Amino acid sequence: MLSKDQMNAIKQSAPLLKAEGTKLVTVFYQNMIRQHPELLNQFNKTNLMNGSQPEALAATLYQAALHIDRLEELLPAVKQIAHKHVSVMVKKEQYPIVGYHLIEAMKEVFGLREENATLLAWKAAYDIIANIFMTIEAEMMDENVKQTGGWADVKPFVIKKKKQESPSLISFYLVPEDESELPMYKAGQYITVQADMPGEAYMCSRQYSLSDEHHPSYYRITVKRDGHVSTFLHDEMEEGDVLQVSMPQGMFCLQDDIKEPVYFISAGSGVTPMIGLVKTAAQNSQTFTMIHADRLEDVNAFENEFERVLASASYGRIILCNEQFAQSGKGELVEKAASRIDRPFLQSVIGEGKGQFYLCGSPVFTQEIIHHLKELGIPAHHIHFEAFGGQSTKEIEVV
């Protein structure tokens, strides 16, 4: 337990973390990776280079400082981060490495001496927070291994099928090299894919949402040509090639005990987790509405699949949006709207808006939709989101 004085010292560091947190974390990552380059096996290098990973950790440290006397309020965020840690195979023995370099970065960036009360308080706090993460992650890893067909870390998967969905989107059907049955997963979860890329000293890791409901023999991911690993998958990986794949993780899933209507709102590659979520809602006989916006060449990628979902749904509505459509209208079942997803359009679709809302897209898109929903009177606890592009809690706020 932290003392009252330690908690006060950490709380008093919150303004400094808000102002200089990104600089602190950037130095932390630079120093840690310089001494432990093997950790590059686990990081998304693009997010490290573009600053989104430092932004995310800086925001987490700031929130920890604000809530150090009531850490239980951060438990949902802790669990979300823990899912990511398990997916990229963070090990218990790596936590002391992280702690050491974080404290050293605080000394360097904030000019704190070894005996400084704030630094000592953060040392103690890090040990407590690290133990929380290690406990949760150990339980999650144990559950993964205990599942029928489950495994630890990654195992080899063969690309069974590579399907061009649109000019920018390719679906990869991945099957275990050992032909074992796959464990259950929830629609909306993601896997880590590791690729051994030429010219790279370490494995290149990237998380991709599973773009279908559960199937016992394959995983499907749908990859947009965007970024180092995704471009490599598009251009270099063919049917029969092997990728290393983790167990599915993530919390962006339908709530089992909710029977009210559900709304799925996505843009760009944010459609990928929505496909499985829509299918799950249809199977559960839930009333659902999906709104998806994308570039003109990509927005129709899964139209036929969505038509089949609607054909079997008790009540469902799917709207594809693009301002360049010649006109709004309706296909056999799927609707098309010559519009962007702005507040008037949302209001016209959701009406009173009673239900649960699931959002997925870029951080900018997600924040914009959250803002519109709040203006339309949607309670924060009814809004659930997954943002692509290395989002952080600093960038996306619900409350």
Automatic annotation (TrEMBL):
Residue ranges of the TM segments: none
InterPro entries membership: Cbr1-like_FAD-bd_dom, FAD-bd_FR_type, FNR_nucleotide-bd, Globin, Globin-like_sf, Globin/Proto, OxRdtase_FAD/NAD-bd, Riboflavin_synthase-like_b-brl
Source organism (scientific name): Bacillus safensis
Gene: hmp
Protein keywords: FAD, Flavoprotein, Heme, Iron, Metal-binding, NAD, NADP, Oxidoreductase, Oxygen transport, Transport
Name used for this protein in its record: Flavohemoprotein
Record's keyword annotation contains Metal-binding: yes
Residues in Globin domain copies: 1-138
Pfam families to which the protein is assigned, alphabetical: FAD_binding_6, Globin, NAD_binding_1
Annotated FAD-binding FR-type domain residues: 152-255
Lineage: superkingdom: Bacteria
